[in-house]
Amino acid sequence: MLPYQSLTEPFSEEAYLKRWLELERKVASEGFTWATLYENYEDNQYMSDSLLRVPASLVQEVENASRAVYDILAKTYQRILADHSLIHRLGISVYVWDLLLAEVKTAFSYFCRFDFIASADGLKVIEANTDTPVGLVEAAVAQEVICREHGARNPNAGLTKKLAEAWNQVIKDYQIGSGDTLYFTCADWHEEDKQTVGLLMKHYPQKARYIPLEEIVVEKDDVRTPNGEKIEFLYRLYPLDYFLAEKSHTGELIGEQFLVHLLDSKLKIINPPSALLMQSKAVFALIWEKRHEWYSRSEQRAIDTYFLPTFHTANGMSSYVKKPVLGREGGGIQIVENGAVLDEDVDHYQDQEVIYQHYFPMPEQTVATWDGPYTGKLLIGSHVLNGQPAGLFFRVGEAITGNLSMFVAYTDS
């Protein structure tokens, strides 16, 4: 895969910044406002103005793989519901087990993002973000602007249509009436989450209202807004397991009461609780263990093709990636190759159970940045809405794909 513009010309910081700042202004005007991220006491570039040329055959293969991975996860979810003892192996807090194992008449998740590595050795899925995936604004908004700037086709042009289709399915499955309000929430201080919620709201076809997470009132009998309106339907861009630690304005823990209301169906949330169940990276170990027992021959071929050997112990592997089962943004990950630690994060999620996934190296990709050409590791995110592939989200960063890995748009050729 090659950057659309040449990186062989002499680099001029002044010329680059002038071009990049104009692009930043354009994407911000359409809703993508975090082209830079402030972290480690400095501004970091998050958006490259490069445009990758990606073979159409690879785009199609990622779409095919995304369908297969979603279907395998859906089948695995049904297997877990049929044998509740399996939840012991997923590393999820016991306080939410009853909620996660309550069978619901919905998809296990309507909004997913799968992360793939593509190399000469094949295409492999390394994570499933089924609970609170982000990257939609990049894939739907910034992608369109950057393609337009380069005069290139945008392969993600159909993403917002599929977003609307997913909402129509949610309305049907949740039986949301035309007079009902779907509330949308996230931490109000979090710019990325707030703009993502804004995009989701924009394409929801019925009554919608934003409520900051900090303003949700959890009472003994139900959940309400500060003005007393009852909340019956809630889209939350906030991990379900995080609610356990939430406190009221008086300092009282309210997460348990919130979960009780979910169990009693006084409140219905999107994504559903099952999305957290399938977010556990230990699900991949379960799929690998049961690949010859639970799945059809075609599903077994898909697992052998797209999944990596994954276990609860290192299992004699000399090259692996150790991951906390509910870690996010690369936190707590350790990469080991031939017995040597290549990279690791020891600051986050050290108290979680872990899985060990066969190490599959990411390919290198060079993109333009305000410091000159940068060569990093390429990861492909694939958004799946209501079970259907909806658009790709490319990032280039370090060996551990963290919060500062750089977004780069693409076109197909």
Automatic annotation (TrEMBL):
Keywords, sorted A to Z: ATP-binding, Ligase, Magnesium, Metal-binding, Nucleotide-binding
Molecular function terms, GO-annotated: ATP binding; ligase activity; metal ion binding
Pfam families xref list: GSP_synth (PF03738)
Domain spans labelled Glutathionylspermidine synthase pre-ATP-grasp-like: 24-409
Leader peptide range in chain numbering: none
Protein name: Glutathionylspermidine synthase family protein
Species the sequence originates in: Halalkalibacter oceani
